[in-house]
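Possible regression after last week's pipeline update?

I re-ran a chain I had predicted before the update to compare outputs. Posting the input and the new output here so someone can diff against the archived version. Not blocking, just want to make sure nothing changed silently.
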Amino acid sequence: MILAGAVASMLPAGVAHALVGAPEDRAMHLQPAATEIMREITSFHDFLLVLIVAISAFVLGLLVWVIVRYNRRANPTPKKFTHNMLVEVIWTIVPVLILVAIAWRSFPLIYEQERIPGNAELTLKVTGNSWRWDFEYPDQGVRLTANLLDEETALAQGRPYLLATDAPLYVPVDTTVRVLVTSNDVIHAFAVPAFGVKEDAIQGRVNETWFNVEREGVYYGQCSELCGINHAYMPIEIHAVSRAEFDQWVASQGGTVATAEPPEGQQAPPGETAPETQEPAAPAATPTR
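New output (post-update):
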C-alpha cells in the first residue's frame, strides 16, 4: 500500500490505495489488466504467443529433420526435382489461414480501442510538453501540471522514483473516461499499460482514446515516444478511486462537481427522475398598435 502522495493531504486522513499498475521485478508477462480492453489485449497477446511458439517449433523441427535426413553423409545422391505442387499449395494456404485467424482476433479489438463510447461520463484533456504533462478536466474546471517527483521525496513517501509525479491524476472507477491527447511541441505518447492505452500526442492535432477502470488502485505510465533528452522523465500517475473520493479531490482542486440529485426537499418518485424546476410563466404582453 502507498499513500496518494502530496495530493493525499487534500483528502480525508488514512486514504490509501494499492499499487497495482506498475512494473515488477522479474515479471515476464503484461501488467494485470485494469480495463476490459486491456484484458482483451492480454488475451490476444497470449493467442499470438501460442501461435508464434507453434510456428517456431515447427520450423525448428523441420530444419533439424532436413539437416539429419538430407546431409551429405546420409544422402550422398540428392534428388534433382525442383517443384512439388502439394508442398507449394500447403505453404501458400496455411499462412493465409494463419493471417485470417490473426485478423479475426485483431480487427474487433482495434475497433473497440478506437471507438469512443457515446456514454463517456468524464472528459480528460492531456497535453504533452518537453518534458512534463498538463492535464485538464474541462467539465470540472480543474487543471494541473504533473512533473517527475524528485528522488528524495519519492523515497521518503515510499513511492517509485521515475514513475511517481508531484500531481497525480484522479479518476473514478466504473466510469468511461474520454481522453483528448495533444502536444505543445514535439511528438509525445500518453501510455498507461494497465489500461491498454497508448495514444500519440501530436502538435496541432487532437487524438482520442478512452478507458474505464474497474478497480481502485494506483496506476503508472510514461511517455512512450522518444521526445528528447528528458524523455525518460515524463511519468504518468493515475489514482483510480471511488466516485465520492473523486468528487472530494475535484473540490480540493477548486473545481465543480456536477450532481444529478433533486433539489433539497424534493424527492423523485421511485423509478422516476426528479422534475426539472421551471420558472413561472411571464404574463402575456399587452398588444400595442
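Follow-up from reviewer: compared with the archived run. Residues 1-16, 268-289 have pLDDT under 50 and may be disordered. Marking as no regression found.
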